[in-house]
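Model it.
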Amino acid sequence: MRPRTPAFRIPTRPALRIRTRLALLNAAVFAVGSGLLLVASWLSTRQIIEENSATVAATPAAAPTAGVAPPPTDFGNPGTMAPGVSESRFEAFRDDVLSDLMTRSLLILVPLAALSVLAAVWIAGRSLSRIGQVTGTARDISENSLHARLRLVGPDDEVKELADTFDTMLDRLERSLTNQRLFTAQASHELRTPLTIQRTALEIPLAHGRVPTELEPDIRRALAATERCERLLASLLVLARGESGALHHRPTDLAELVRDALAELGSELDATGVSVHSVLGPAPVAGDVPLLAQLVANLVTNAVRHNRPAGNVRITTETDMGWSRVEVENTGPLVDPAHLPGLFEPFQRGTARVKGSGLGLAVVRAVTDVHRGRLTAMPRPEGGLTVRIEFGAAEPMP
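Modeled.
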């Protein structure tokens, strides 16, 4: 299937990339492990000190220094410190040791954690570099052509297996789409001849007045149905050709294509009473001229037919920032933004009362995609639709 145009993408909250997640996960594991190791070391040190507290308390007092009064002694155990003094000094010693241990451990842990984050980012980048290669190639294939393949080289690991699986999927997808487009084009082409014969067989009696009066309404309805079938087949052929990517590039101007489309709709504009306001500046492009002409004609026709009586259509062509643009805005019924993507699918119509096959905007999307253009569609708050098509600008024609 073709990728959706950016106009229909639902905005989502950006997620962290795998490289960032792996780095954060590695840093978190390091921090938790180091924290547990720090707590275990602190508890072990405290236990060792507590277990040796009796030995420290039983150590004989040091010889008195000249001029310094000897510390209080336990009269039951001459030469040892009094119990209260020994315990208080030991608790102070223990607290100093544990506090110093925690401070030094944290000073060592923080830079090690920073180094672990940097190492994790580097290792994750090296590990995921081939996945980035697969992503870039896959994006180029999806945007440009289904003919290319990844053909990833390197060790026969999970990434290589993923790339080979993707290539196999592309093979099946390309065959399926090719067969589908070929069938559509062949069926449409084969049906044009009998429809042309049928239309001719209905037009000749009508033109020569050989149809009985009571049968003339039925003959005209049959003729109108035949003409609708011919238009449908023509749209199917354009759609199949647009999706096939077989283009013959020539320079043209979107402004001239708009003028041609408006000239063809002259009688329909008079019948509907729709007013057209156009600001047609130069908009040179290089592409398949018949396909681009069909795109512009479909945009203008859609804006006129899906409009209210005596409504308005505004058409603008211009070149800006290296892009040639055609924008068509019309009044009409309210369009639910949730239903907007479906309007660009085949056989989807905004209203059932207007004539058409439902392929107009599908052809617009297919031709835009095959020319690597940008399509943006926005519902108008007061009703109707604004459709903007942009192509890379070509050199102005002489």
